[in-house]
Specification:
The complex is a heterodimer of chains A (466) and B (309).
Chain A lengths: L7 H18 L1 E5 L2 E6 L6 E2 L1 H4 L1 E7 L8 H17 L6 E5 L4 E7 L9 H9 L4 E5 L11 H5 L1 E4 L3 E8 L5 E7 L1 H14 L8 E5 L2 E4 L11 E4 L5 H14 L6 E8 L1 H53 L9 E2 L1 H30 L4 H34 L5 H10 L8 H32 L17
Parallel strand pairs in A: 3-15
Antiparallel strand pairs in A: 1-2, 4-6, 4-14, 5-6, 7-8, 7-11, 9-10, 10-13, 11-12
Chain B lengths: L9 H22 L5 H4 L1 E7 L6 H12 L3 E7 L6 E7 L7 H14 L6 E8 L1 H29 L5 H25 L6 H32 L5 H37 L2 H42 L1
Antiparallel strand pairs in B: 1-3, 1-4, 2-3
Classes of the chains: A alpha+beta (466), B alpha+beta (309).
């Protein structure tokens, strides 16, 4: 980094101000009643259930039952269907095949007033009622009506297995294998419905939700049916999982559950935000009073770091999903911002030293950054080590870091603590930003602003003017 | 700036820290460790209620329904200003969700005027709790090990392994003080504790690295003939302003968080911000007063051993 032009300061500073503003307030345009979000603001942060309240529950098969991977996938599909059915879109469900556990976390719905965690958990864990019904008549609530309500052709326990496959033309199918009892019932129903014109339908229901309603194409006598005309293989897998869930030979038990009321957490969140703003202002005042121009530049860089971490949490663009921020996640933010303050303090101290040792201003700035860098680099790399270990050990099992660390942590089940994963994530983002903001942006801004005449007084850098 | 003779007074600093170690052991023995149910398993249910509700009657109703002893505690509800009852089950087996639902229902029937509702439930299976605890400890141990390796590599010029090991000694010292804070204030040891320990781990290692970096630089500048003790004294004094300013800034942030948490009565924040504050102070102390002198002791011991041969 030899030459830095005069305008660089303004470019970097404006960029940071822009990032800060947009990361907090977002950008959206309103056209009639439709609001289109271009950039997500801080209000879109997904707060962890330790902050906004919600339910965290671990389901297992009863003792003595060793569930297969397919059975767990089926159980997971039931839980997901039920969550969607209750209009909860913001859930996390993952399965632990090593320990036969399914971990579910979901926040309370916004504006929810009737909290009944016991009921919510019980409903999720119940055995799914799968039924194949004649026709697809429903009432206004989407419940089966007419002939569909009356004639249940098959129930879940008459399905031996369902499987997603691809036929010779490469089209996705779900192939069903029925028990002999099921085959008999299906023989009668398909024989009749396939003769109808237009062809009759059989609807498939999980609990009180219709999940599919295929047309009956042929008379099936041997209990081996296929469902065709499915969008893609993922959809086929999903349907197969749901059908299998109705045939699960066991009920899920709750081993672990946690429920937090939203009022408890939101108080914590507001207090944290208030404290964060006050603390930032105090640190800014201190940095500017003590380090003068270096302090001003440092505060701009710190602003950029805070904005960057928020961007890392919200995703910034609507297409990128948000990350869940928990209380330990806030802890990680604090630590990384602390490290950002430290990087700026180290550099400013070094420049002061060099200026006082009688170096020229440009020489002092250059060697100040150079000498301070080794310490900043080493401590930030050690932080990255910590962050990666945490993300690997407490994150979802399919993440990159988890795969790297799997030989060490395979003896434990996957995260019972998404909270700590959040700490690793914000720390990692913060430390990377420390290199971008605390080191690079500060350096660019300082080198460029020091080219202006009014800013060449040594006093501004902690020195003594002759 | 006045130069502090760290090496001359090192016995005092070591003495203070040994005293803290003894205090930690004593405090653990006297007060015991308040392991959260997150790690040991068990059930805690928080019920919110309106109007006056007699704690004794409430407890009796629960004990009758469940057929076991329970502890109950009163707590102010931050949001509504009402009182909550926190019910903890002494048996570590946990309560099934069905039993818990039945309990809530029966309480609502017995105290119809109090609008009893489940405010928060925390039920942890002891196996999962222990597994989680073990996992936390393994994660911290692996992180510490990798740090030693990294520091040993980066500070190979100043006797890498000794620097790495001393860094970790300073770090363990700080973690111990954080733990002491939790024990003395009877904060539950839960995942907040793990987050605080990890934060202090990072903070402390950062502070120590800055000082070792200065030693590394000075050693390069003055060559290996210089007296190690004087070199370290000089390095610590040179980094002093930085150490004070950074610690002051981060400590200020923590003090603000603590004050807001107390004013707003948010206990969950206080139980992590306050130990963090203590940890930051400990980190400043250990990196300034312990890590340098400890490293010198190791170097002098090595020299003496070599000379004896």
């Amino acid at each position: 980094m030899k030459k830095v032009g005069k305008p660089v300061f303004f470019i970097v500073a404006l960029l940071i101000v822009f990032l800060t503003y947009t990361s907090f307030f977002g950008i959206s345009t309103q056209y009639g009643d439709v609001t289109k979000t271009w950039i997500k603001g801080a209000d879109t942060i997904r707060w962890g259930i330790d902050i906004r309240g919600g339910v965290d529950v671990t389901f297992t098969p009863p003792e003595g039952v060793d569930a297969t991977e397919d059975e767990l996938a089926a159980a997971q599909a039931v839980i997901e269907t039920r969550l969607i059915n209750q209009n909860i879109a913001d859930y996390e469900v993952y399965k632990d095949t090593a320990k036969d556990r399914i971990i579910v976390r979901f926040p309370w719905k916004e504006n929810e007033t009737d909290f009944n965690p016991e009921e919510a958990i019980q409903e999720l864990g119940e055995t799914a009622l799968l039924s194949f019904r004649e026709g697809m008549e429903t009432d206004e609530n989407g419940l089966p009506a007419g002939i569909t309500a009356e004639n249940v052709i098959l129930s879940g326990n008459m399905v031996e297995s369902a499987q997603a496959v691809v036929d010779q033309q490469g089209l996705p199918l779900v192939s069903l294998k029925l028990t002999s009892e099921g085959a008999k019932a299906f023989d009668e129903a398909t024989g009749r419905l396939s003769q109808e014109s237009p062809k009759g339908r059989i609807s498939i229901w999980m609990d009180e939700l219709m999940i599919s309603a295929p047309e009956v194409q042929a008379h099936i006598t041997d209990g081996n049916a296929v469902i065709s005309n499915i969008g893609d293989i993922e959809e086929a897998k999903d349907l197969a999982n749901k059908i299998n869930a109705g045939a699960l030979p066991f009920k899920l038990e709750t081993e672990n559950y946690n429920s937090i009321s939203p009022t408890l957490g939101m108080g914590a969140r507001d207090a944290m935000v208030l404290a964060g703003v006050i603390a930032f202002i105090l640190i800014a005042i201190f940095m500017i009073l003590y380090y003068r121009l270096n302090g001003v530049v440092a505060v701009i860089a710190l602003m950029g770091q805070v904005a960057g971490i928020i961007i890392g949490v919200t995703g910034y663009f609507p297409a990128i999903p948000s990350f869940t921020l928990t209380l330990p996640g806030l802890c990680g933010m604090i630590l990384s911002i602390g490290m950002g303050v430290d990087a700026n303090v180290i550099t400013a101290e070094r420049i002061k030293e060099e200026v006082r040792a009688g170096k020229t201003l440009d020489g002092a700035i250059d060697s100040g950054f150079e000498r301070g860098f080794a310490a900043i680099f080493d401590s930030n790399i050690t932080m990255i080590i910590v962050a990666v270990i945490l993300m690997g050990s407490f994150g979802p099992t399919d993440s990159l870091f988890a795969k790297m660390l799997s030989p060490i942590f395979s003896m434990f089940g996957p995260a019972t603590a998404g909270n700590i994963y959040s700490f690793g994530y914000t720390l990692l983002v913060g430390v990377i930003l420390n290199f971008i903001m605390g080191v690079t942006a500060t350096r660019l801004m300082l080198k460029s602003i020091s080219k202006f005449k009014p800013f060449r007084k040594l006093w501004l850098y902690g020195g003594v003017d002759e | 700036m006045k130069q502090i003779a760290f090496m001359k007074n090192r016995k005092i600093y070591f003495g203070i820290s040994i005293g803290l170690v003894v205090l930690t052991v004593l405090a653990t023995l006297i007060f015991g460790v308040n392991l959260d149910i997150q790690f040991k398993g068990g059930t805690i249910i928080t019920y919110s209620h309106a109007g006056d509700l007699d704690g004794g009657a409430f407890q009796k109703a629960i004990e009758e329904k469940l057929g076991q002893k329970v502890n109950i505690q009163e707590q102010t509800n931050v949001a509504t200003g009402n009182m909550n009852y926190v019910v903890s089950l002494t048996s570590a087996d946990g309560l099934s969700v069905e039993d818990q639902g039945a309990l809530t229902e029966s309480l609502q029937q017995q105290f119809p005027d109090n609008a009893i509702e489940t405010f928060a439930v925390n039920n942890v299976n002891p196996t999962i709790g222990k597994e989680f605890f073990a996992k936390c400890l393994v994660a911290v141990a692996i992180a510490a090990l990798l740090m030693v390796v990294y520091i040993a590599f980066r500070f190979r010029r100043i006797g890498g392994w000794s620097a790495g090991v001393m860094c970790v000694v300073a770090l363990l010292h700080d973690v111990m003080i954080v733990y002491l804070t939790f024990v003395l204030f009877k904060f539950p040891i839960n995942d907040n504790f793990i987050a605080v320990v990890l934060t202090i781990l990072g903070y402390s290692i950062n502070a120590t690295i800055v000082i070792y970096d200065r030693i590394r630089e000075n050693k390069k500048r003055y060559g290996s003939k210089a007296n190690i003790g004087e070199l370290v004294d000089k390095s610590i004094n040179q980094s002093m302003t930085r150490s004070i300013n950074t610690s002051l800034s981060t400590a200020t942030a923590m003090i603000v968080i603590c004050i807001v948490a107390v004013v707003r009565d948010v206990n969950s924040i206080l139980t992590f911000a306050f130990p963090l504050l203590i940890g930051i102070i400990a980190g400043f102390y250990s990196s300034t007063f312990l890590s340098g002198p400890l490293w010198v002791c190791w170097q002098e011991y090595k020299k003496a051993k070599k000379a004896a041969k």
